[in-house]
């Protein structure tokens, strides 16, 4: 499937790429000091540091993540595998795109 076909089949692909545009408007609406830009990669790389930064930003005491909570951060890796299987199953839809 080409990139163009993928965009036609799944408009969310283009919507999720507008993060910077949305971020600017949120900062203008609520104030730069009231919007904390975060990246999912940072959550995956260092869940405790990510949560500490978030807790500091919203003004709540820091807390330690349990081992189970740390593992659940990486549970999306399994979801990614399921998404790939689902995408393969949906390919007949993509083939119909002109």
Describe the protein in words.
69% of the residues lie in helices and 0% in strands. It has two domains: 1-36, no CATH class; 38-98. It is flat and about 45 Å long. The model is unreliable at 91-98 (pLDDT under 50). It is an all-alpha fold. It is built from seven helices and no strands. It starts with a helix and ends with a helix.
List its traits.
98 residues, mainly alpha, 2 domains, single chain, 7 helices, disordered C terminus
Short description:
It contains 7 helices and no strands.
SSE inventory with pairings:
Layout: H1 3-9, H2 12-15, H3 19-30, H4 40-45, H5 47-58, H6 67-73, H7 76-95
What's the total count of β strands? 0
Low-confidence stretches: 91-98
- The Rg value, from CA coordinates, equals 18 Å
Hey, roughly how much beta strand do the residues contain? under 5%
Structural class: mainly alpha
Mean pLDDT: 80
Summarize the main sheet: none
The share of residues in helices is 55-70%
Shape: flat
Q: For the terminal residues, how far apart are their CA atoms? A: 11 Å
Order of helices and strands: HHHHHHH
- Number of DSSP helical runs: 7
Number of domains: 2
